[in-house]
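Hello K.,

You asked for the raw outputs rather than the summary table, so here they are, unedited. I folded two proteins back to back in the same session to keep the settings identical. This is the first:
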Amino acid sequence: MSTRGVTVTPLATFRNETPYPFCPGCGHGPILDHLNAALVKLQLDPRQVVIVSDIGCSGLSDQYFDTSAFHGLHGRSITYATGIKLARPELTVIVVMGDGGTGIGGAHLLSAARRNIGITVLVFNNMNFGMTGGQHSTTTPTGAFTATTPDGNLERPLDVCATASVNGAAFVCRATSFDADLSDRIAEGIRHPGFAILDIWEPCTAYFVPRNRLTKKALFDTLEQLRFPTGVLQRFEIREYAAAYRAAHAAELGAATLPVRPITPRFTAALQRPTRFVIAGSAGGRVGSAARLLARAAILSGLHAALRNDYAVTVKTGHSTSELILSPAPIDYAGVTRPDVLLVLSADGRKQARKYLAVMDANADVLALRDFAALETGARLTVLDFAAAGLRISAAQHALAAVAMAAARLGLLPAEALDEAVRGGEPEHVATNLKALEAGRILASR
């Protein structure tokens, strides 16, 4: 297979080694296996595939694939996917969402269908909110028992396929997780130009199956009773919105692409191999900002950088963790399971760091604030004690100071590159950020 002049070895799987966490008998696993089979059949470049998810059990799905991914708020996955497709029309964008999202994000579903945005939507339809206790959703069948309809659901379920069809979806299919040809239907949807949606019915063995004595036969009987036909229900070709938009605005967009503002390398890094960096701290500790500045400094030094941030749903409380890979060669997978460098900056960060500490060895480095000097790890442990060194910096500066120390101590990239990254950042933080860099370098020299 060739992609843009680069020879790519055919892939036997798009799945990584992360095991599924789903309940026994849940349909999510089989659907994801069919998605993997569809991607293998199509032999897409994984760097050009984006899996977009939101909240719920299905929202865990993007992490099991070695592709690009975006995870966001409940019911908003189609919105994110629309933005990605408009910005990068050459990408294959696949939405993985639950039936809960079809209610919470119903307006987004309608708009994407009528605009004919070139994305593929897989609805994991288990007829209830399976992650939060089995409450009824927009697709719960009439009479079904759920946590919020103990006497039987009085509402008629949303017909996802009919709704998408009448609003102009180019490809519409209703299927089940039991279908042997599901991977073929998913591949067909991905290949089809324009908006494609597959409403995939499946069992929720934790809640819906026990409360409704749902069997495989009963699921198919329910579809028949509701007069919900299965198979490919609509297929036609109509201009795809992202392509139509670019054609209509070619003069403003130049070569029919959005303008790119590249970061031009100005420095040279001595780094010879990929280095995996994790910063574990708390929300409000400018963890993400420090990681972003380090990534920018790496690019300014001629390196490749990949950044993944994780934080709690609360504001200004809870953990904030950044996983960063710096490499002299292109990076195909952005996740970090075994860091080369780990910074532990708060109690929240220490909790998140446990999984990393457990797999790090004597070839890795842990830099931890004084409060965590007793960390148990097989890695080399360096204690960061700014106060003892006479360095007066605030807690909000700890992350960037620790980054500067690690960069200097380990020779990751030139100090000038970090300085330049800071000067090109938010003007109101330049002075304090430069002070944090200096503190980290002073500590590294002692």
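The second followed immediately with the same parameters:
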Amino acid sequence: MSAKHDNLLEQSIDIGGTTSPSQFLDTTDEAIGLGASIPGQTGSAAVLSLITVDVVTVNGLTGMWSVSEGKFLTLSGAANASNNGTFQIVKFNSNTSVDIRNAAAVVPDANSGSITWIERNSYMLADDLNYIRTDRREIKGTPDWYDPVPTYTRPDATTTDVSANLTNISGKTTDAQSLPESREIFGAGVLAGQSSITVISPGNLKHVDAVNTLGIPCFDVAPFVGDFRSCFVKILDGVSSGGEFTVLGGVHAGERIFGVTNNGASASPNSVEVIFYSCPLTADIQNSSTPYTWEVGQVSSVNLVYGYNQRIDGFNFNVLRFDLTLPASTSAGGSLTPAAHQTLRQLIHFISEGPGNGFATGAFKETLPFSSPFPTSIIWWESSAKLKKIVAKSIAYNPNKTPSTILWEMYATDGVTVIATVSDAISYSSVFETSRTRSIS
């Protein structure tokens, strides 16, 4: 005798009777409890008429039949807002007409004859299940709700699939991550003798703190105490070249000048200090930096590029752009850019013959003594007015009129301060040069 299981449900049938699961519902309908629309039961020619207490007759429909009673009709596009909404069908009149219950209805309606209508089933358990299917499909981003969770690969294991589930993306959303972006201040003033400046921009210069880790890292506040890299500020010429600065004179001449953001006496979020440092061009700023005092001869207006820790979802549209005036690309040798050459005014560029690209036209050369075949002084001035020197060459001679020493001196932009010297001591055999010893300082 075979066993009978008449009470078992087919597994593909929802409790509610549907054999056609849906995954494309309008999820905005779920919040207001609308049942699924009946396929084919929609139109745009409904007419509202006759009100009896709270019952309104709707004509201009199609496909209505007796089982429509108890279902719902959604109306939209009526001239009177009270006539728009979803209403229960209380009476079947014909395949083109039903009565609905709407106590607030107003008839006649100016748009009768062009009102859109949709017949709907009552909200059932099947709708809950279908909304869940719709959500699953949309959350997973797959063609069907039952497809596996998508995968991705990580850059350190590109042959290994990783599930894009909530565990793997938790804590990795853009509002959970922050990165330092570059921000700019243009035309900050700085004077000779200053070892730091305080820049002010009310509301825009928040400092990092223990609770809110967004903002400017400060050199004197944890967790960035003594951290040159995190607090680094690029200082650019805001007057002429747009390039970085180097130390003009002294034991650190030629070193790169930069800054660090510092709390000091500034007040977050309205101001921040920038302390000046210098470092050899090829050295690590974390290990080889020295406090710097702004020198006579440096320009008095600078552009600052500083770090600001920003939540990724709040990044500025132009965060990966850099719109400051910058030096051109590096030369073939990869050492200095043309703009850096112009800014550094290194003496070695002038040993051949005077200033070139990057210096103002009109430079003036003076040779002394005048008309002598053995000059002892050759000076390049910025102009014939002879107010500012660019470079000077002094020559001492042996009794046979061969040069014994040659001294070159390079001047800062003030035309007075010597920022570099090169001195050659020359040896001869008869009148022929045999060796030369060069000193650079």
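Residues 37-120 form a domain with the Elongation Factor Tu (Ef-tu); domain 3 fold (CATH 2.40.30.20).

Happy to rerun anything if the numbers look odd on your end.

Regards,
P.
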